[in-house]
Amino acid sequence: MKKILISTALLAGVLSYAGGFRVSLQGVKQLAMAHTSAHAEDASVAFFNPAGMSFIPSKLSIVAGGFGASNKVTFQNLNTLQSTQTDNPLGTPIYAAITYKPIEKLSIGFSFSTPFGSTIQYPYDWEGREMVQKLELKSYYFQPMVSVKMADWVSFGASYIYARGSVNWDKAVTQFGGTVNINDDKASGHGYGFGFYFRPDPKLDVSIAYRSPVDMKAKKGTATFVAPAQTTVNTLLGLNGEGQDSFTATLPLVEEYTIGLTYKVTPKWLISADFNYHGWERYSKLTLDFANAPIGNQADPTILVAPKNFKNSKTVRLGTQYAFTNMIYGRLGAYYDESPYSDENFIPETPSFDSFVLTGGLGFKLKKFGVDVAGGYAMPQSRDVKNNYLGFYGQAKAKAFYFGLGLSYNAF
Hints:
Layout (H helix, E strand, L loop, with lengths): L1 H16 L10 H5 L12 H4 L11 E17 L6 E3 L8 E10 L2 E8 L3 E5 L12 E18 L2 E20 L4 E24 L2 E8 L2 E13 L3 H8 L6 E10 L2 E9 L4 E10 L6 E6 L12 E5 L5 E11 L4 E10 L17 E12 L2 E12 L2 E5 L4 E19 L2
């Protein structure tokens, strides 16, 4: 019994490292319009589609911004009626990008973003403490890119992705009256992106983009056990004198397909729409290889393989912008985002819900400078949790909101 419970707990922690959800906060202007992508006004388009750099009106463009993301999850055991709420700190995703046209038909750029990551914290004595007490996830994408204008109305762009990530996760191991910490701050991976950007008419922009999956290689992960009978635990699990064992794993971050368009109804009013398709199906299973601990479920007892059963998901977005003056812009949007897993595969480490999100914001242009503010309010649908694999049942609800501040500079 000890072996099974420890295996499940370790798996849950590392699964959560893979993300379980995509954080759509890579542009303040974009968030205000439901995080739509077909906007080639400054360097913020670089993350969404490198081909859009060719249509930025400035030769040199620089953007940077950040967000506050607040979310609360409530889980209720329907048998005991006991309710637990997370006490999550404020998340702070950031982004920055720069683009430059050395010659008329060629644009180069660089984008930095944090597309996966969050922190979730439950009370340390809650009923799911053997799955998670606290989990901190971080990811960073570094993307150099290039775009070529193939004609006045179309461009092609491509980017290379270098990703770094970290996880710091605490959970209880009640069999030993202790805890375990899963930690890896040196995971890395590589990927790419490419896209086409079209402007067949001055009123219409069309963006088609693909971002590849990134396999995060965790080569130096550490599991640290702390228990009153530390010597016994170290001997039982083959740990070192500090109660530690190492593990390796390949942790996938998913691919994304995007089709977006923006239409200028009038010189002051535009409407944007996006369709995103996320390849969560890659999470069919996850394999962990421990150095010594015999907590696996394969012929080699140090190898643990467990199902995830995620499914591909879709997001539909609709946004609009209206220019009140040449300096002030109002923006609104709404989108619907699908969860990548069913009620039967719900996990408390990275809780995910089908969500309807309302967004809005303002933009201010001061000659070459721009200042944008945005906010979003999410309305996740409650879930009936039925995870037989983890033995986790009940009802989960959530609420979340976002706000952001972005700066832009189109130099010349």
